[in-house]
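Example record

The entry below shows one chain as it appears in the dataset: sequence first, then structure tokens.
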Amino acid sequence: MSNNIIPYRAEDHEQLVAIWHRAVTATHHFLTEEDIEFFHEMVRNEALTGVELWTHYDETNKPTGFIGLDGTKVEMLFVDPVRHGQGIGRALLKHAEELKGNVLQVDVNEQNEGACAFYRHYGFVQTGRSELDGSGKPFPLLHLELRPS
């Protein structure tokens, strides 16, 4: 696997939106179609450019996943579902650690069991919980933090 991670490129925007959509459809089974469409518009119009975004590319220079950071907080991390389990998410988190240090935070949907397991396996621990997500929707969030070991 290539560890080619570079900053956001506008020419890849639609490919990143498509990765987000495929990943959410594959992992966020608790969302309705209306919910997905609501968040899809946010991702397409503002979310990707509102954070420090880093994209992972494969050996053919095709985007395979991305991580969005706001300081030491991971605001988003999505990997194309056909590439799940290949170390891309781990590589993106390692890149974030190299940039920001090894104290990172992330909020993860409690109902997204795969993401919860991924972050816990990486070493994140729960520091809190909210009943509503950042948009005020009833999707509980777990607040996780990665601390130096």
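Notes for this example: The beta strands are 4-7, 52-57, 63-70, 73-79, 104-109, 124-130, 141-146. The radius of gyration is 14 Å.
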